[in-house]
Amino acid sequence: MASTLKRQKRLKNLFNSRRVVELSDLYEAIETNSRMTVFRRLQRLNYVSSYTHAGRYYTLYEIAQFDRDGLWFYSEVGFSQKGSLKKTIKYMVNACGAGKLHSELEKQLRVRVHNALLDLVKSNKINRTRFEGNYLYTSIDPNQSKRQIERRYELKIHPNSAWQFLSESMVIEVLVGVIRAAGGKPEVLQIVSSLKKRGVSITINQVKAVFKRYGIEKKISGSL
After folding, report:
1. In the CATH scheme, what architecture does the domain 2-64 have?
2. Distance of CA 106 to the CA centre of its chain
3. Pairing of strands 77-80, 100-101
4. Burial label, 150 (beta-carbon count in 10 A; 0-12, 13-18, 19+)
5. Domain boundaries defined on the chain
6. Partners of residue 135 on adjacent β-strands
7. How far from chain centre, in Å, is Cα 12?
8. Residue ranges with strand state E in the chain
9. Does the pTM of the predicted model rise above 0.85?
10. Top-level class of domain 85-157
11. Rounded Cα gap, residues 23 and 58, in angstroms
């Protein structure tokens, strides 16, 4: 019993010191070659495996600092409160009032999502529909899907409704674009253009929503 507690404590100390570890580190920490033993110990610590890197990395829920999208990145390693990549995508598609585009998901999740999306559609877990030359992924529920498609079109018309569909990472991208703007006087179209060159799919209204939220145009005018 004492030996078991000692190994459990060693495992906890390993996470506290490194934050993110690989399976080989866990074998060494509890002195075993048994995968079953490792995961039995992990379950007592409430762990989560990465949805990136084929689930090779592990951390504890108490260590991960999940953002409002339920994501946490440690360097290039991504973790999700929902667990696997497919579960995360399904959640994000259903949770967003305007559905999700392929490019939006890849930007947020920082991994390729094509195969996961295809599997989810084929297994009837999410729906997809054509939207201005792209696929828009929505809920499998017809009524919710209809509302999501309608809200997606609203993004093009009403700037004020765009904010609620912006991910934390997209807001950061816009703010970084503002900082980098030539001459210190960023314009909406300039930000949209520069972000699209970097592969960030964002609308004019979404950028306007960020500008309005942070009073960017007022601050620029006030500095003149």
Report:
1. Orthogonal Bundle (1.10)
2. 8
3. unpaired
4. exposed
5. 2-64, 85-157, 168-216
6. 130
7. 27
8. 21-22, 47-49, 57-60, 71-74, 77-80, 100-101, 127-131, 134-138
9. no
10. mainly alpha
11. 8
* Cα gap 84→82, rounded to integer Å: 6
State the Cα–Cα distance between residues 56 and 53, nearest whole angstrom.
Answer: 6
Q: Is 32 exposed, middle or buried (0-12, 13-18, 19+ CB in 10 A)?
A: middle
Give the closest residue to 42 by CA, choosing from 57, 58, 28, 53: 58
2-64 matches 85-157 in fold? yes
* Tens-digit pLDDT profile for residues 29-82: 888 889 898 988 898 899 999 999 999 999 999 999 999 889 999 999 999 999
73 burial via Cβ count (<10 Å: 0-12, 13-18, 19+): middle
In the numeric block, the tokens 């991994």 are attached to 111
Cα distance between residue 129 and residue 86, in whole Å: 19
118's enclosing H/E stretch is helix 114-122
